[in-house]
Amino acid sequence: MTIEQIQNEIISEFDMFNDWTEKYEYIIDLGKSLPVIKTQYKTQENIIRGCQSKVWLYAENIDNKLIFTADSDAIITKGIIAILIRAFSNQSAEEIINAKTDFVEKIGLKEHLSQTRANGLSSMIKQIKLYAVAYSTK
Amino acid sequence: MTIEQIQNEIISEFDMFNDWTEKYEYIIDLGKSLPVIKTQYKTQENIIRGCQSKVWLYAENIDNKLIFTADSDAIITKGIIAILIRAFSNQSAEEIINAKTDFVEKIGLKEHLSQTRANGLSSMIKQIKLYAVAYSTK
Amino acid sequence: MKNTAFNITSIRNDFPILNLKVNGKQLVYLDNAATTQTPKVVIDSIVSYYSKLNANIHRGAHYLSQKATEAYEDARKKFQKHLNAQSSNEIIFTSGTTHSINLVANGFINLLNSGDEIIVSHLEHHSNIVPWQMLCKKTGAIMRVIPMNEKGELIFSEYEKLLSNKTKVVFVNHVSNALGTINPIKEIISKAHEFGAAVLIDGAQALPHFKIDVIDLDVDFYVGSAHKIYGPTGVGILYGKEKWLNKIPPYQGGGEMIDEVTFEKTTYAKLPNKFEAGTPNIAGVIASAVALDYINKIGLEKIEKREAELLDYATKKLLEIDEIKIYGDSSNKTSVISFNIGSIHPYDIGSIIDNEGIAVRTGHHCAQPIMDYFNISGTIRISMSFYNTIEEIDSLINSIMVAKKMLS
Amino acid sequence: MKNTAFNITSIRNDFPILNLKVNGKQLVYLDNAATTQTPKVVIDSIVSYYSKLNANIHRGAHYLSQKATEAYEDARKKFQKHLNAQSSNEIIFTSGTTHSINLVANGFINLLNSGDEIIVSHLEHHSNIVPWQMLCKKTGAIMRVIPMNEKGELIFSEYEKLLSNKTKVVFVNHVSNALGTINPIKEIISKAHEFGAAVLIDGAQALPHFKIDVIDLDVDFYVGSAHKIYGPTGVGILYGKEKWLNKIPPYQGGGEMIDEVTFEKTTYAKLPNKFEAGTPNIAGVIASAVALDYINKIGLEKIEKREAELLDYATKKLLEIDEIKIYGDSSNKTSVISFNIGSIHPYDIGSIIDNEGIAVRTGHHCAQPIMDYFNISGTIRISMSFYNTIEEIDSLINSIMVAKKMLS
Ligand SMILES: Cc1ncc(COP(=O)(O)O)c(C=O)c1O
Ligand SMILES: Cc1ncc(COP(=O)(O)O)c(C=O)c1O
Questions:
Q1: Is residue D2 pLDDT above 50, yes or no?
Q2: Position with higher pLDDT, C260 vs C175
């Protein structure tokens, strides 16, 4: 599936929730199933700044696709990053670079998931794109 | 006359004015007749700080009475200081120290004669009292 | 005459924001240590300033400028009276507690020599650590830290050991923003004075809660922020003993703080102007004095009493929650409770209860050393004001229970 | 779509204070270079902030805090766009022009060596002189002064002679507050860059009058005050090129400007937070962006045109007065006129016309070097905004005639 298709899938899933509790329960469940980062990559360098909770994000290039793994000490943050990984992982660097990111607003994450300074959510997306840029220029 | 008597006299004089123009004309006239300070006292040390225009004030002790002379580069300031000198000059240090100063408000000077920082008018009154304190402790 | 009863309905009506709906829910604002809300009289005074008074102060010979100057200087006198300072020259308006502390720290650059010591407490806000670290770097002075205990209290006997003739400055907050601990500043000050050290007290978290008497405390510098005492943003207060303010150099250069300027040489103005370079936050300062009047009209003793009741109730209710751990349980604290529940990340709970309209703070509260002490990354902090209610605390508890359930 | 006509009645109605009566007379406010008046939309935005949005920013995970943070960061983006800055990291909010300049001057402490040179102009406001004098004292750098001529213009050829490889910083105002002269800053900047010097432009008196494009100017630092562009008191703007802001150290220590704090070591946050220690003037910053929107809605070209008309008319009328001397008659100036009449002290005229409701400034206008140049103690300065009218200038002239008569 393309990034756009996955994002649309996520949007329609989120459309089904009746209230924030259902949405949060879903995010928390996702958090629990996040593809966990290997311990050796859970380093200071792989921490994303600007999030209130700690977020580690790592990308590997396997067969010209970027595979993201991540972790966080907060479960909701883990859930959000799981959504982002679902949308962007296992795609080519180029597709990631060009992908739109407004699905985040469409699923009401920006609205409901308040973040500290410089919006942790945008920091995560920025970091994902930065990885893609780094790999595409290698 | 006591300081209080003089002040009351000044207040009743000011009561006669119908509008600010008459009052200002009077002050300007007073400014022209200010007992002028001797040139040797028109020094940097005798300048009163906190007035927008320059004010020099000097006091001499003659027969246990303080005699004030002053000058300013602005005529309205000269007029005001002339009023203050009329109220406080030629009195004993002790009387000056104990004198009330609210006649200034009563003649509407505080209201109409806006001053820069820390109110030049209060700086002048303060300086007059400081002279009196200085002489009383000599 | 003050009325004796505390009329909570009428008080809440003084604060327009307290009626706000957030995410469809009634706002429950429990983040008062970050910033307090603003009563209508304060907002009105800002409107009135810009509609009837706005002019640059001090420099002008015209009516508006004089009226604005008078209002500004009256505000200074109100703070002087409130803090019981000896002269209005001892009250400097800044842009916030942080600015006040930086101003003082900068003032010590030429008063400290390499090897001199300055003492900080483990309970400080970053604003009362970083400026002094910068100062140490510039001067070679050494920073010593008063340690804390498990209850979140400073260990006084350790403080006494740190003091010596090398000690030049001691800087401690009156109340810890992260834990609410009230420090024994009077004793801290008098001990420091035995060694000739100056003391700066960061009163950002004390001014909203109780009466400060700088003469009784014999404090050298006392600082705070208007936005934490029901005033506007962008205004800070610095009280300094006249002898100290005369001793330290100006922090910023500019208009107002000078006496004469030539390209060769500039002489500085007298206090308080020496420290107020440039156009100040005129509207903000005037409104801050209105805020001060507001809390004084209610009465700080009444505020203290009310907040103590809220603290007791909230503490009792929170302690009924399984696996809760409250950080900082000094018997002498303000209406602040910092806690965690089990191993749940504070951010998770904060995010969930936010959906119920409950505003609390989560994180390190700009006090990382305290978090390091407890070996945690952060806490959930509720901080209550006199306008909070028992019902609001009940809502908080209910929401936390919901969050806890969702998260386990 | 902008409407093309300039509807003065509707514009004046935007400013509540313009209807004020002073001493029983209609206020005529001609002191706009000191501070501009505040349109209702700006006042309203402050009310709205404190009634619906007030919370501490950046640090909070709750709704209000996020909304306040967004509004604050949106304001930053508006200033970025307005100045055509490349990144919002290049916009720092301070408490005023004076603070902005001090922040930059402080940043050069470790970049200057004894014997290095910095260049100031003779036309500066004290705020752009004193911080640099303090810097020279700390570093041993030498201050050179670009001289001015009788018209109140800088002598460019003399500036060129001052420049050398020793020159490290040049700081000049865009517009002189005392005389209104518009300086050729684009040429000044590019000349300085030939020698590798950084340039700070004090735009306090330019921002209210015309559009600034920092990229086109290639300026390193550009500063201004919100209270001079129809915004509130207590807010300053600092534009700095990202490479410069990364190079200079933080000015103040505190919350927000740090990344990690331990007692041993502190790492600083990235731009723009590195320079925004402590709780900023949140309400003020948000209201400043509303002020920016307001003037952009009118349109700066239209404002420029209107003010040029007022300047022409007022200059013509004033020149009809016997014995008047206008200081600064550059053909390139803003709507400011500084003058004296015969040997009458400016304060005397200012005091008398104040009784007629006319607000002008008298004195040295925080620019003593200019007064020294003309060998005077001060001037009467009128400074016009687009909301002023021909009728107001007529009232001014009438009052001056009355004053002149009374005083001679
Ligand atoms: C040219 C110039 N620079 C600097 C300043 C100082 O601005 P502020 O007082 O807002 O810091 C002013 C205003 O008085 C000014 O006109
Ligand atoms: C104890 C303490 N000190 C200093 C500060 C900093 O105050 P401000 O951000 O208003 O400068 C705060 C507030 O966050 C505080 O709680």
A1: no
A2: C175
Ligand 2 interacting residues, C-beta cut-off 6 A: C 96-98, 125, 127-128, 173, 177, 202, 204-205, 225, 227, 366; D 255, 278-279
- How far does residue D88's CA lie from ligand 1's centre (Å)? 23
> Which listed residue (A27, A34, A37, A51) is catalytic?
A51
Which of C72, C261, C279, C281, when mutated, tests ligand 1's pocket best, judged by the most ligand atoms within 8 Å of its CB?
C279
pLDDT tens-digit readout, C140-178: 999 999 999 999 999 999 999 999 999 999 999 999 999
Among protein residues, the one with the nearest Cα to ligand 1's atom 12 is D204
D214 vs C24 pLDDT, higher one: D214
Domain that holds residue B7: 3-136
Nearest by CB: B20 against D344, D355, D407: D355
Residue B28, pLDDT above cutoff 60: yes
pLDDT band with cut points at 50, 70 and 90 for residue C23: confident
Backbone angles phi and psi of D332, in degrees to 5: -115, 85
User: What per-residue confidence (pLDDT) applies to C56?
Assistant: 92
Identify the CATH number of the domain in which residue B22 sits. 3.90.1010.10
Task: Give the number of other CB atoms < 10 A from CB of residue D152.
Answer: 23
Give yes or no for C260 touching B (CB within 8 A).
no
Mean per-residue pLDDT over chain C, rounded: 95
Query: Quick check: D345 and B53 CB within 8 A?
Result: yes
Phi, psi at C48, each rounded to 5°: -65, -40
ipTM value greater than 0.90: yes
Catalytic residues of C: 366
Q: Would you call D61 and A117 a contact, using CB atoms and an 8 Å cutoff?
A: no
Q: Ligand 1 centre and the CA of D321: distance in Å?
A: 30
Calculate how close chain B gets to C262, using CA atoms only, in Å. Answer: 17
Percent of chain B with pLDDT over 70: 89
The nearest alpha carbon in chain B to C260 belongs to B49
Report pLDDT digits (tens) over D172-201.
Answer: 999 999 999 999 999 999 999 999 999 999
Q: How far is D98 from chain C (nearest CA, A)?
A: 5
The ranges of chain A with pLDDT < 50 are 115-118
Interface test with C, best of B77, B109, B116, B122 (most C CBs within 10 A): B116
Calculate helix-pair angle for A20-32, C390-407, nearest 10 degrees. Answer: 40
Q: In whole angstroms, what is the distance from residue B89 CA to residue B112 CA? A: 24
Q: How far is residue A34's CA from residue A13's CA, in Å, rounded to a whole number?
A: 18
Q: Domains in chain C, ordered, with CATH?
A: 8-30+299-407 (3.90.1150.10), 43-296 (3.40.640.10)
- pLDDT at residue number C1: 41
| pLDDT of the residue at D17 | 98
In the predicted model, what is the mean pLDDT of residues C112-140?
A: 96
pLDDT tens digits along D360-405: 999 999 999 999 999 999 999 999 999 999 999 999 999 999 999 9
Run of H or E residues at A105: helix A103-106
Which pLDDT score, from 0 to 100, does residue B116 have? 47
Total domains in the fold of chain A: 1
* Predicted local confidence at residue D1, as pLDDT: 40
